[in-house]
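Thread title: Can someone regenerate the structure for this chain?

I was given the following input by a collaborator and told the matching structure tokens would be attached. They weren't. Posting the sequence so someone can regenerate them.
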Amino acid sequence: QVQLVESGGGLVQPGGSLRLSCAASGSAFSINAMGWYRRAPGKQRELVASITTGSHTNYAESVLGRFTISRDNAKNTVALQMNSLKPEDTAVYYCNTWPWDVNYWGQGTQVTVSS
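Best answer:
Regenerated them for you:
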């Protein structure tokens, strides 16, 4: 069982940066690939980035080169560094296992990119 709590969202101007963090509780964290997902208004939830237990990463084409996912297994955390933010990055961001598990969705953290 894994419980996930996201933090770090906020309001930022276009071109700005934010760092999201996901704190995981439960011994299963270190054996799971993890992902950051987002749901923009009026759109379906989508995978933004994923990271395996061996720290191999993959990114959605829309964020490639701007976002970086990382994990710290000792601290049971997963981070998403977001640079060069665009208005279209506005969404609620969630972390979950990858592929996602319906039991692990948390409240997410709101990211708003606006001038």
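The chain has no helices and ten strands.
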